[in-house]
Design a protein that fits this description.
about 130 residues; alpha/beta; five-stranded parallel sheet
Length: about 130
């Protein structure tokens, strides 16, 4: 049985590193992208992604909201969590959840578990883009 895979899209290296490392520690597989363009490339690669966590304001041609829309068009059942210090929750549509920055890792982990279940459960609906 393999762990659920989370794509973390965050341009701030230290935030991305801490999130990815913490998610791995609790049992998730983690893919990382430094901006929306890299995140979209992962989604289009065919790599299994069960959930995406994305920042909104990032360098490149795709922001986190556009990336969320593209993720939903590729795999409507794949949950997306949008994190931002610059938006309010209603502006995060079509995300499944919104976390205002700053947030704690415990808050993020609780939202991920609510949306996907335990790290080791499988869900064939969201396995590929």
């Amino acid at each position: 049985m393999s762990a659920r895979t989370i794509l973390v899209v965050e341009d701030e290296f230290l935030i991305r590193f801490m999130l990815a490392d913490s998610l791995r520690e609790i049992g998730y597989q983690v893919l990382e992208a430094a901006n929306g363009d890299e995140g979209l490339a992962v989604l289009l690669s065919g790599q299994a992604v069960d959930l995406m966590v994305t920042d909104v304001r990032m360098p490149g041609s795709i922001d986190g909201i556009d990336l969320t829309r593209r993720s939903k068009s590729l795999a409507p059942a794949r949950p997306v969590i949008v994190c931002s210090a610059h938006l309010f929750e209603p502006e995060s549509y079509p995300a499944d959840a919104f976390l205002p920055k700053p947030y704690t890792f415990a808050e993020l982990a609780n939202v991920i578990e609510r949306l996907t279940g335990e790290p080791w459960q499988t869900n064939s609906q969201t396995r590929s883009a």
